[in-house]
Each structure stands twice: as C-alpha cells, then as structure tokens.
Amino acid sequence: MRELLRSLPALSGTAPAFDPDAVPDDPLALFADWFTTAVERGVPEPHAATLATADVAGQPSARVLLLKDVGPRGFAFATDARSAKVADLEVNPQAALNFWWQGVIRQVRVTGSARYLGEEASAVDFLARSPASRAAAAAAVPPGQGLASVTDLRDAMTRSRTRVEEDPAFVLPTWQAWLVVPDVVEFWQGCADRAHVRLVYRSTGQGWVHRLVAP
Ligand SMILES: Cc1cc2nc3c(=O)[nH]c(=O)nc-3n(C[C@H](O)[C@H](O)[C@H](O)COP(=O)(O)O)c2cc1C
C-alpha cells in the first residue's frame, strides 16, 4: 500500500483563475461562485459534502451527505431524525462541512452551528425527493439499526414504494431539514507550484472579515 499511495498524483486538477484581492464581502456569494464553477467544469457530484459532528463526549464522526440549499443564512442538508448525526447535533450543535472539488483543486471548509429548520421545510425537502428516495427513506428501517440481510432492506423498500406511490403527499415524520449557520468559511485554492491560496472568512456577528493565511 505504501508504494501504491506514494505513486498516486495529488492536486492534479486544473485551477481556475482566482484573485483573492477581488472577492465579495460575503463568503456565501463566493461559495455560490465556486460551486457554479465546479458544476461548469464538470466536477462530479460537487454537492456531496462531508459533515462532521461530535457527540456529548466529544467523539467526532463524519459522513458524506448532499447539500440541499445554500443561501445567506447558511448551508442546508436533510436527514433522518433517528440518525447518529442528529443525536450528535441535538446535544452539540457545533458542526463542520467540507467540500473537495478535485477537478478544480478547490476545497471549502465551513464551521458553525447547526439548527433544525422545522416541519414545513422538512416536508418540502421530503416531497421534492424522487419516489425511489422517498421510499428508501421511509422504509421503516431507522439508519444505523442492525439488518439481517440486504434482502430484508429491499423488501422493506418495496413495501415502502407502494405506500409512497399510493399516497404521494406522504411525508416521513422523522425527515428533517437542517441548516449549518457558518462562523468560519475557508476557501482553499490549490496551485501546481504549491503556493496554495487560503482565504478565511470569519463572522463578526454583524458581517464578515476575511484574510489570507499560509497554506
Ligand atoms: C454521496 C452520498 C450522499 C449521501 N447523502 C445523504 C443525505 O443527503 N442525507 C443523509 O442523511 N445521508 C446521506 N448519505 C448517507 C450518509 O453518508 C450516512 O451513511 C447516513 O446519513 C448515516 O449517518 P450517521 O449514522 O452518521 O447519521 C449519503 C452518502 C453518500 C455516499
């Protein structure tokens, strides 16, 4: 493995032009710009992000999920209330989100606190999912619960699919939309010569300040 790992290239994407002296005051605007560029440059699944949480004892855990919205208030995702991440966030709302866009050598790191967006936003998110993903979410098998076999899960999903198709307005009561409200947003632009650009925005409570830091 050691040899294999050392043989692999890193930072092999193509960096778009980026001038850290000509950035917007609001990091959410810069995020939208970088995200759009990632989509235009064909970065696969740029909306997949790693969410890190920590439990009451401080034990961290991280998992990939999909970004559902981004706007002036923060970064939205959706999940099941019975999941470990929600158990973590209920006792410790501090969270981090990480995006890595290989094709453009860009990383975005977000830290902040997460809050539940309420029943209405959660229902809107659930109903916007495809029938297959609504059925999968509603398969009555809570995330993390032990399974005897994958066949059991498929059977539960088939029953759930019928229910979702018969009642298109059905909303899984445990489906929740959450928002990560950022305190710090870091934009990392990799460069082939290793003079990487790290631009860190920090919330002041009234607005944002930003500065360059060493990579
Ligand atoms: C590409 C990708 C997208 C995913 N999107 C979501 C998502 O939007 N919401 C979600 O709850 N889990 C999503 N998952 C599954 C999570 O990674 C994770 O397995 C699940 O949420 C349980 O995590 P937890 O036990 O830490 O709460 C996704 C996984 C992958 C690989």
Automatic annotation (TrEMBL):
EC numbers: 1.4.3.5
Enzyme class: oxidoreductase
Alphabetized InterPro entries for the sequence: Pyridox_Oxase, Pyridox_Oxase_N, Pyridoxamine_oxidase_dimer_C, Split_barrel_FMN-bd
Cofactor: FMN
Domain annotation Pyridoxine 5'-phosphate oxidase dimerisation C-terminal: ranges: 175-215
Domain Pyridoxamine 5'-phosphate oxidase N-terminal intervals: 36-146
Signal sequence range: none
The entry's keywords: Flavoprotein, FMN, Oxidoreductase
Record organism: Cellulomonas wangsupingiae
Organism domain of life: Bacteria
Molecular function terms from GO: pyridoxamine phosphate oxidase activity
Descriptive protein name: Pyridoxal 5'-phosphate synthase
Protein family per UniProt: Belongs to the pyridoxamine 5'-phosphate oxidase family.
